[in-house]
Design brief:
InterPro entries: Collagen-VI/PIF (IPR052229), VWF_A (IPR002035), vWFA_dom_sf (IPR036465). The protein is α/β, with parallel strands linked by helices. It has two domains: about 210 residues, no CATH class; about 180 residues, von Willebrand factor, type A domain (Rossmann fold, 3-Layer(aba) Sandwich). About 45% of the residues lie in helices and about 15% in strands. It has a six-stranded mixed sheet with strand order 11-10-9-12-13-14, with helices on both faces. Strands 1, 2, 3 and 15 form a four-stranded mixed sheet that branches. A two-stranded antiparallel sheet has the order 4-5. β1 and β2 form a beta hairpin. α11 packs across α15 and α13 runs parallel beside α14. The longest helix has 22 residues. The chain is elongated and about 85 Å long.
């Protein structure tokens, strides 16, 4: 950015700091300290105006149970009305001045129309269809697009029939509920603003009904009702590397107990694109990558691979170098450069270290390094004691790791919660989209004042339907595509090779 731009931006920043109290509307919609606006409009004002546009469309598209033959014209009227609401909230607002400064005014309007949908969505599908775009930063599993198609199929059929308003009301509600429930169950939201915006969106949409004034046969529900059953376990979004001590002090019974504990943990957590991923490595003074983090796409496949995994060859006098093993992972797995990491962006990085005795090298310093990278290191073994600075689990003896599955689950789930709730919206890895995106820069700037604008979060990303395993058959190896966070190829270190 040149000096002239810096001067202008600095001036705008000072002006905004002085006038922010005057430009913020009375009514905010706030979640956990983040307030949402739409230019000069409150969220409530925006949604009331937008819903009025949609209601006019629905009132006109069907008359006396007959769908209008002039739907194309009605869709153009809807689009014009929604753009008028958009411009009324955005024109002459502080947000608009920033958008012009970053040359993003047109891009934001294009994004807005993308989420509105095309004529087919409104005239053929009745305004509800399986999502073709998601908000950037939303990661959904491979079956999401298939599930949501089932959600809307009956409503779309009824919309194109001569059904009564009562029937349309009921099917519209069921379709909306199904889509939002599927989104909550099959998708994760990678930043606090995005997650809370989705809560706001669900609550606003579920309170809106174009065909009737109340729900027939069902109570009005909210985001809380839909999400209250989705907890950890089984729901987690962690990338977990299990690190097993195979030094001279670990016998075969201890190694099998470690594998048994891993099996129990993985079996109790959702696994896959929208769940956990797991890897397995063995160490003494070297490290053996037995199962790469992105090797298996399902929990069953991981467990089969783990069952087939044999202990590394026992070496007489092999020392226990826990710090060395963690340093290797810090260099090759838990790296700051996302282009080199095998971890999924925005997912909780966890390392579970299973040892049978004290390390013969320095451990605390490398754990401190990993903690700075937001990696949760969990230590489990018979020699450990409770620590205020480390996450430790003490086993009864060397062969009782499998008895502490519940403790491990608690630690992993707590790491997941801490990662989400403690997410720094200005830190590495927490951005909604590319770090150098102008809209992301604006979003970060406004968040410093405790609020943000909805159009800055409305960045579309296509939903790409996938096969049952989530692989793109045209892609080499295990690289994932579409509406999910990608695993980057970690073939720079190979299974079965000692390091």
């Amino acid at each position: 950015m040149n000096i002239k731009c810096l001067v202008v931006l600095s001036a705008l920043t000072m002006l905004h700091a002085c006038t922010v109290a005057m430009t913020i509307p009375r009514a905010f919609n706030s979640y956990s300290g983040i307030n949402f606006l739409f230019g000069s409009c409150s969220v409530q004002e925006y949604y009331e105006s937008a819903q009025a546009c949609r209601r006019e469309f629905f009132n006109s598209v069907r008359v006396d149970r007959i769908k209008s033959e002039n739907c194309s014209s009605l869709y153009r009227d809807l689009k014009t009305c929604m753009l008028r609401v958009f411009n009324e909230c955005l024109n002459n607002s502080m947000l608009e001045s920033y958008l012009f400064q970053y040359d993003q005014r047109e891009a934001v309007e294009d994004n807005y129309l993308t989420f509105l949908g095309d004529e087919r969505r409104w005239c053929d599908h009745g305004g509800i269809s399986s999502p073709v775009v998601l908000h950037h930063g939303t990661n959904c599993d491979p079956i999401y697009s298939h599930v949501t198609k089932d959600c809307v199929a009956l409503y779309q059929l009824v919309f194109n029939s001569q059904a009564s308003q009562r029937r349309l009301c009921r099917e519209y509600n069921r379709a909306q509920l199904c889509i939002f429930r599927s989104t909550i169950q099959h998708c994760s939201f990678t930043t606090r603003p995005l997650s809370q915006m989705m809560r706001l969106l669900v609550n606003m949409e579920l309170s809106y009904q174009p065909y009737c004034h109340k729900w027939f046969g069902e109570e009005v529900v909210s985001y809380y009702n839909l999400s209250s059953g989705i907890v950890c376990p089984p729901r987690s979004h962690a990338d977990v590397m299990f690190l097993a001590d195979v030094s001279e002090g670990t016998d075969d019974g201890a190694f099998e107990s470690m594998k048994s504990a891993i099996r129990r943990v993985v079996d109790k957590l959702s696994y896959g694109m929208n769940g956990i991923r797991a890897g397995f490595a063995q160490f003494d003074d070297r490290i053996l990558m037995s199962i790469r983090m992105n090797r298996y796409s399902t929990g069953k496949r991981f467990l089969r691979g783990l069952s087939r995994t044999e202990r590394a060859a026992i070496r007489t006098g092999a020392p226990r170098m826990t710090g060395n093993a963690l340093s290797w992972l810090a260099k090759h797995l838990y790296v700051n450069d996302t282009d080199l990491s095998a971890l999924r962006p925005h997912h909780t990085p966890v390392c579970v270290v299973m040892t049978t005795g004290k390390s013969q090298d320095q451990v605390r310093s490398v754990i401190k390094t990993l903690t700075k990278r937001r990696v949760r290191v969990i230590l489990i073994g018979p020699h450990l004691t409770n620590s205020t600075s480390l996450h430790t689990i003490q086993t009864r003896d060397k062969v009782s790791f499998h008895d502490h599955c519940g403790n491990l689950l608690q630690e992993i789930c707590q790491a997941d919660r801490d990662y989400r709730e403690g997410s720094d919206d200005f830190g590495p890895g927490s951005f909604l989209f590319e770090n150098n995106s102008p809209l992301n820069s604006l979003n970060r700037y406004f968040l410093r004042f405790g609020f943000t604008h909805l159009p800055l979060l409305w960045v579309p990303k296509p939903v790409v339907p996938q096969g049952p395993m989530g692989f793109n058959s045209n892609s080499p190896g295990h690289r994932y595509i579409g509406n999910v966070s990608e695993f980057l190829d970690d073939s720079n270190f190979l299974e079965g090779e000692l390091y």
